[in-house]
Amino acid sequence: MSETAAERAETAMADALGLIATTPHLLVALDFDGTLSQTVDSPQKARALPEAQAAVLRLATTAHTSVALVSGRSMESLVEVAQVPDMVLLVGSHGVEYRVDGASDVQLTAAETEMRGLVHTILDEVAAPYASVHVEEKPAGFALHTRLATDDETSAVLASARSRIEAETTGVTERVGKDVLEFAVRSDTKGDAVKHLRSLTGATAVFFAGDDVTDEDGFLALAPGDFGLKVGPGETAAAFRVAGPPEIAHVLDDLVELREHLGRA
Ligand SMILES: [Mg+2]
Question: What is the pLDDT, as a whole number, of residue 236?
Fold first, then answer.
């Protein structure tokens, strides 16, 4: 009997995983929401699946292996939900904020601070008529959350925010995510984060996984010999795909087994 396309994809993924596990220094960079955790209505209640959390901690203590969580959340929010020790590198706000060896900060210029204040005023004003729309503070900007809004409300509030940001601000970058539209005075992406983490850790190969449109910047920063893993449906530049967080936990488990086995060999 011939292999199905799904079986071939699974074999290709297992082969690539086996290969990346042999790299001298591995960087495992992971999105948090929708990748390690299931998406929940209340963002502060999100937690990694226990099996995903266990695999992350095992990888972080494996020799010649660095682990980073790369999130669109602010650092403060990521620290709260991720609950990982300092040995796990954290990247917040899509690459604007880093926690390395437990220390983190982001310094805006006076002009950036002023522009960020203007973004805040505009988003507060456009969100004010909608009880279902929430404005989240980010270190380099603000985000509109529309998860609880109707489609009509979402279209109206996003159109209004976009036109006012365009008319009244300069140098502000827009980022679209699932049920979130963010405006920031810094334009760092997860691609910048992957490049920075690669050089920071001296990684010889990068494993990167994520579920959202902003993770595509991360996939595009990967090179031959790296491993890109898309979580869930949607177009992607990643070479491989799994259905959801439980499957990510399995892949990370396989990766840590392969990596630990090499250490003992
Ligand atoms: Mg995500």
Answer: 97
| Cα distance between residue 85 and residue 79, in whole Å | 10
Confirm if 119 and 172 have CB atoms less than 8 A apart. Answer: yes
Instruction: Give the Å distance between the CA of 34 and the centre of ligand 1.
Output: 4
Whole-number Å distance, alpha carbon 59 to ligand 1 midpoint, is 20
Task: Give the integer Cα–Cα distance in Å for 173 and 255.
Answer: 36
35 in helix, strand or coil?
coil
Q: Which residues have a beta carbon within 5 Å of ligand 1, which is an ion?
A: 31, 33-34, 211-212
Ligand 1 centroid vs 93 CA: distance in angstroms? 12
User: What count of other Cβ atoms lies within 10 Å of the Cβ of residue 112?
Assistant: 18
Give a three-class secondary structure readout of 91-111. Answer: EEHHHCEEEECCEECCCCCHH
Q: Which domains does the chain have, with CATH numbers?
A: 5-100+189-264 (3.40.50.1000), 110-184 (3.30.70)
Segments in the chain forming alpha helices (H): 5-20, 50-60, 75-82, 110-127, 151-168, 190-201, 216-220, 245-264
CA dihedral angle for residue 222, residue 29, residue 172, residue 139, rounded to 10 degrees: -160
pLDDT in tens, 28-52: 999 999 999 998 888 899 999 999 9
How remote is the CA of residue 53 from the centroid of ligand 1, in Å? 15
Q: Phi-psi category of 111—alpha, beta or left, where left has phi over 0 and alpha has psi -120 to 50?
A: alpha
Tell me the whole-structure pTM to 2 decimals: 0.84
